[in-house]
Amino acid sequence: MKKSTLWCVMTLGLCLSGVSHAQISTEQAHRQLTAAAKQKVLDGSIHLEALLKNNSNDLIVEYVTDTPRSYGANTRNKIAERKQQIRERIGRRGGVELLREYNGLPLSFQRISNRDSLIALLNDPEVKAVYPNRTLKSQSISQSLNLIGQPTANSSGFSGEGTTVAILDSGLNYRHADFGSCTAPGVPAATCRVSYVADISRDDRSLDNNGHGSNVAGIVAAVAPKAKLIGLDMMSSYDGGGTGEQDMLAAINWVVNNAKSFNISVANMSFGAENLGSSNYCSGALQTPLDNLRNVGVVPVIASGNAGSTNRIAYPACLQRAVSVGAVWEANLGRVRTGVCTDNAVADKVTCFSNSNQNLSFLAPGGQINAGGFTKGGTSQAAPHVAGAYAVLRAALPNESIDQLTQRLSNSGKLTTDHRTSNRVTPRLDLASAVRGVSAGTIQPPVTQPPVVQPPTVQPPTVQPPVNPPQVVQPPAVTQPSGQTCRRIFFVTVCSG
After folding, report:
1. CA–CA separation, 402 and 265 (whole Å)
2. Quick one: which H or E segment has residue 81?
3. d(CA 358, CA 337)
4. Which of 46, 423, 442, 454 has the fewest CB atoms within 10 Å of its CB?
């Protein structure tokens, strides 16, 4: 005789008791599933037979909700009420355990150990979907480095020494070990990779508002391990992580004015307004500043965006003379779901979310990459691979023009067909091939007095919404109490299962 079980939901003050009874068979469960329930299982990528045969299933349950996207107290209360009502219906059957609650999301993590309750859960019209609790793994940056041949280039002495890459982004946490554990920019001189940092937007006294800039900088640091870095923070926590073009202009202006003093060879810009570019080149206020960057010897490398377009790229990557970068998967990640597409992620395949058109300059790895203390993915992560490659080439070939360096990278890249189109081919970055036959060298810094660098005068910003990539709709991982809550500010962060 089985003892009665007690099911308690402490967070909602709900305790239900029920008496365990004999499980229905797998065959009975099959017959009781509605067509809608079977579709939920299909949408959640759950193996139906495994789901029904298991005595216990740990599932992420998503509920139907019509609540607004602004998650204030009222919204959280509505979500909690809806969840409680559903769990009351399902919980009477027993074998239901709440493992984790998410008070701002219409989801919960539950253990279902009663097949009858499982069927009731799946058949409930207010249950939108069920998902397995997939294990999400960060991809080591070594995978993307191996794909582009960086270890081979680095072992031959191509490290970017003597050059500097400016990161126009959300800031740069120079204290992280990936940058030499600096106590201040340039300190200690022997190990610190970061030469300078500045708040271009409203000063929020934050080294990095959300980790995006540090992740991007960490990728550059890995590709060009002896190049210096500059972090220009264009994002302000006061503005909800957004920025306007006035801040971008100020950052570019700073780079133009200080390019010679700091030996800046590349400016990485993993930001933009999604899908504003046409199939041809676009126009905008940043066109002339990009031209000015090139005129002082700085390559503007810009992420193409993550709307999944095959005939448009984001602004300002769509501008003439911009080096635009789309993304390929750096490893075999399995099935990947984003807000714009679902993909079978295979190494060196163009990602389904990557914006592209006939003017796209390069492809580079942009899956889920751990660097600078954060794990992020998207074309935002592809761009710094190319930025680092330019720094490496500039150090070895100081007398070549930007166009010559670009042609070298293009000619040496692996021609990769975009599977979403019939015949478009774009070179994927191959650093090992780009430096083949080149003598490793180092740019000698000019003998000058240390520059007196003043951050630009910041006017009250006219805030534009950031490029908010599609949120990953792959089932959310269970976050430990001390875990990090990630915010997507620029381009998409992709998770794999």
Report:
1. 9
2. helix 73-91
3. 26
4. 423
Contacts of residue 295, Cβ cutoff 8 Å, sequence gap at least 6: none
Q: How far, CA to CA in Å, does 283 sit from each of 276, 290, 309, 322?
A: 10, 12, 19, 12
Q: Write down the domain spans for the chain.
A: 5-132, 139-434
pLDDT tens column, 152-167: 999 999 999 999 999 9
CB atoms within 10 A of CB 45: 15
Alpha carbons 231 and 238: distance in angstroms, whole number? 19
DSSP 211: S
Q: Which fold has domain 139-434?
A: Rossmann fold (3.40.50)
> Is residue 236 a contact partner of residue 204, using CB atoms and an 8 Å limit?
yes
Helices 245-262 and 287-295: crossing angle in degrees, nearest 10, is 0
Burial track 78-87 (b if 16+ CB lie within 10 A, e otherwise): ebbebbbebb
Could you give the CA distance from residue 68 to residue 85 in angstroms, rounded to a whole number? 19
pLDDT band at 1, cuts 50/70/90?
very low
Q: What is the pTM of this model?
A: 0.67
Give me the sheet containing 127-132, strands edge to edge: 96-101, 107-112, 57-63, 127-132
> Chain-centre distance of CA 345, in angstroms?
15
Q: Is 59 helix (H, G, I), strand (E, B) or coil?
A: strand
Tell me which of 57-71, 247-261, 329-343, 377-391 is least confident. 57-71
Residue 327 in tokens: 């993304």
> Which residues lie below 8 Å from residue 74, measured CB to CB, with a gap of 6+?
none
Tokens of 409: 């990278």
3-state helix, strand, coil in the chain (%, to 5): 30, 20, 50
Is residue 224 within 8 A of residue 165, CB to CB? The reply is yes
Distance CA 332, CA 321 (A): 33
Count of other CB atoms within 10 angstroms of residue 350? 26
pLDDT digits (tens, 9 = 90+) for 318-370: 999 999 999 999 988 888 877 688 888 899 999 999 999 999 999 999 988 98
Q: Which of these, 158, 132, 136, lies nearest to 145 by C-alpha position? A: 158
CB atoms within 10 A of CB 16: 17
User: Can the peptide bond before residue 316 be classed as cis, meaning omega within 30 degrees of 0?
Assistant: yes
Burial (Cβ within 10 Å: 0-12, 13-18, ≥19) of residue 128: middle
Q: Which of 79, 58, 44, 126 is nearest to 475 (CA)?
A: 44
Bridge partners of 426, per DSSP, are 416
